[in-house]
Amino acid sequence: MQYTDLIGRMTSDAWILFALVWLVSAFFTKKYAKRAGARWWVVRLLFVAVILIFIKLSGMRGAFLLWYLHEPAARWAGMALTFAGIAVAFWARFNLGRNWGQPMSEKKDAELVTSGPYAYIRNPIYSGIFLAMAGSILVFGMLWILVLVPFAAYILPSVFAEERIMARLFPDAYPSYKARTKRLIPWVW
After folding, report:
1. CATH class name, domain 3-180
2. DSSP assignment of 3-45, as one string?
3. What tens digit of pLDDT does each residue of 52-73 get?
4. Is 120 in a helix, a strand, or coil?
5. Where are the domains of the chain?
């Protein structure tokens, strides 16, 4: 097996592991007090379907990929970024524990989690996924931008909606937490 095949396979496997962990861990959360609308479920399912399709397409090479890096160092770096992004998302997910849930939803007996990656950024799961997608662009090609852009269009409104929800749920603690952390990029934004 060539290193290029190995990099692609390992990166694909990381995304599959991510999807499986997300699916299984969804069964071990607190009950919802209020859920996001049904349209967001459709968006999420479409996003998962697109990721799986892109993993399959990523094994193909051709002009339709728009641009594909043949430089080994860039592809290894892409795999490392993908692994790092997924690791950050896992760290954040497990740090939330049973408080984790759908974007823009409220849990019963919700707690404001400010430890682990949440000590630096308010949305480390989203940050990790963005980082993993950026890495996947380096591994698989520019076609992955077609995943990144819709994900950003879905997540950015979620970030602002969730900030409003957290400010309402934790009126005493959230303002100071928000003042000392960044939204998505540590020390930047």
Report:
1. mainly alpha
2. HHHHHHHHHHHHHHHHHHHHHHHGGGSPPEEE---HHHHHHHH
3. 666 666 555 544 444 556 678 8
4. coil
5. 3-180
